[in-house]
């Protein structure tokens, strides 16, 4: 593991050297970082990390994005996720996999009351419609590994929530 300063990411290029695969789950919230901080973390840092990984020899980049990502969205969150997807694809990896999970079901150390309420509700809904509105983070992690072990066809592969569930079962 290498600890890097994302404000000076270029100074840490050595940490990105010699890896065949890159996994990126970096993100924050607007509430935590403000609108500008959210854009900096979720778009700028991710795009710069992808560029450094490619320059370091990375062939397959796996990006966790979000359901509904769209660079043309009126909503900041979905627009930034769509923009970063486009930026990562433009880097020119041999293979790029983008995962678009729905609401992530996980336990957090920090307090997010509204997210907790949503997760409780979606946890119940998931018993009836397991792939519709949410996905456990463990399933996303397994899908990320599986997509590298069994790469799909084409240069860019986008996996929506249902496909993440399927691939995450393996």
From TrEMBL:
Pfam families linked to this entry: NAD_binding_10 (PF13460)
Any one of the GO BP annotations: import into nucleus
InterPro entries, per the entry: NAD(P)-bd_dom (IPR016040), NAD(P)-bd_dom_sf (IPR036291)
Domain of life from the UniProt record: Eukaryota
One function term, GO molecular function aspect: catalytic activity
Residue ranges occupied by any NAD(P)-binding domain in the UniProt entry: 4-151
GO cellular component labels: cytoplasm
Gene3D superfamilies recorded: NAD(P)-binding Rossmann-like Domain
Self-association state and partner proteins as the record states: Monomer. Forms homodimers during oxidative stress. Interacts (via N-terminus) with elongation factor EEF1A1 (via middle-region); the interaction is direct and competes with EEF1A1 binding to guanyl-nucleotide exchange factor EEF1B2, thereby inhibiting GDP for GTP exchange and reactivation of EEF1A1. Interacts with nuclear transport receptors XPO4, IPO5/RANBP5, IPO7, IPO9 and KPNB1 as well as GCN1L1/GCN1 and LRPPRC probably through their HEAT repeats. Binds NCOA5/CIA.
Family annotation (PANTHER family): OXIDOREDUCTASE HTATIP2 (PTHR14097:SF7)
Name the UniProt record assigns to this protein: Protein HTATIP2
Originating organism: Menura novaehollandiae
